[in-house]
Predict the 3D structure of the following.
Amino acid sequence: MTLQDLDRLPELLLPWYQDNKRDLPWREIPAEPYHVWLSEIMLQQTRVEAVIPYYHRFLEALPDIPALAAADDETILKLWEGLGYYTRVRNLRAAAQKIMEDHNGIFPSSITGIRALPGIGDYTAGAIASIAFGQCEPAVDGNVLRVITRFAGAMDDITKNSVKQQIADGLRSIYPSGDPSGFTQSLMELGALICLPNGTPKCAECPLQNACSAHRNKLTDLIPVKKPKKPRKEEKHTILILSSKGKIALRKRPEKGLLASLWEFPSLPGHLTKDQVSQHYPACRHWQRGPEAVHIFSHIEWHMHSFTAESPEELEGLQYFSPDQFPAVPSAFKAFLPLKK
Ligand code: SF4
């Protein structure tokens, strides 16, 4: 891959960023590492507009690293409820605990110290190092890969680690030492607002248009090149919304694997009939069809049917909650949640 003309990026992007950047709550001057870190973790797989209320709520409840390190499971899961990917918030707390133990509660500023924290990969480490600590470290995510491969006219497969690495090295060599934070954010912002995916980039508004190879050669529909993903596996489940005396039953998922250790509704594999489910739970009565839902994870799809039923007593092995005191439940199950009174 030839990454020519990358050295023109800072002069073209920095003035554009100053004039066009969105006013986002974590874009403070000076940047607070805890805030940059939290926003980056929340923004993985979630849109900016959806993240903002979560971000404020989280910081209100856990305003600093010591508070996060000391928070219990139910608190952090409740604050994360709806964002999905609960491992992220558990890793946030584990990293906060490591910062308390190994760094006297002060966020480490070296790229190796940041990268060693749980849940922080190359992208997030680069984002924190450059935005919060002014270091010349690139943060290469899908947006940045798209901008750079289009700019350079590179037809290499961006799902390959070697391509990612080449782009990171190329960027590191041209980082402007005067404003690493602005440069990282200008690349992110261009990818989010102008150099859009799926053949819809707004080249006419782009500060890179005169230097961009994909634009010049009409290749924006073909770049970035991505190897097609494997199709997702489909699983069928029958979700059971079992109540007793106004309370609804949940159980904990296994400690390992998808949605580890989180609350879920009891369920049975496959799409079962009323007769089939009632045989599994003979103490329950008044079986009725409930809502259906599909939830898409990165590698798996759940196709869920459901039944509701009641039992006079609480069933063994399940824990019952009144709708007002429902714990955090993954968004995969949101179609089945009780309405709060
Ligand atoms: S000119 Fe078009 S394709 Fe090139 S970086 Fe700008 S928006 Fe992307």
About this structure: The longest strand covers residues 233-244. Residues 147, 150-151, 194-195, 201-203, 206, 208-209, 212, 214-215, 220 surround iron/sulfur cluster (CB under 6 Å). The chain has 13 helices and eight strands. The beta strands are 233-244, 247-252, 263-264, 267-269, 285-289, 293-296, 300-310, 319-321.
